[in-house]
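Bit of a strange request maybe. I'm writing a small parser for structure token strings and I need a real example to test against, not something I typed by hand. Could someone generate the tokens for this chain?
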Amino acid sequence: MSDDDFPPDEGLDATAEGADGFDADLLEQELRGAAAVLNPLPAELLQLAMDAYVLHDLEARVAELTFDSLVDAIPVRGVEDPPRMLTFQAGALTVDVEVTGDGLLGQLLPPQSARIEVLGGPAAARPLTVDGMGRFAGDAPPTGPFALRLRTDRDVIVTEWLRA
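Reply from user aminoacidic:
Good idea to test on real output. This should exercise your parser:
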């Protein structure tokens, strides 16, 4: 049998073919199309991926978790549902946060003005206001994984992601 005995491949682009006649770009395009039809990407996952990409900020510094009351604190007898206390450190800036069933309370040390957003998966970032003493509060407790993004006059700082 020779190559003349087989019908020509009508879907292949001769300009993108390799030496063996195989077009990897066309195959990838057809596989992506089949995957989109047979197993479409859930809208929530796409939104989460887009939000994660938006969070990618090369100039942002990561505030390291230095204290978590779930791990580091000694339990207090008689207290059934204590608030979760978190401390993040980024250079000279300390962020203290208390997570309760009613929301978030926190303070920036040293006190300074900043814009703070509570990041939480596919949900839109919730802004928090910071007063002149560096204090902030949010009336909605985080659910699921969350992080804080702080925009000071000089820096963008993102805390580590934690599960509420």
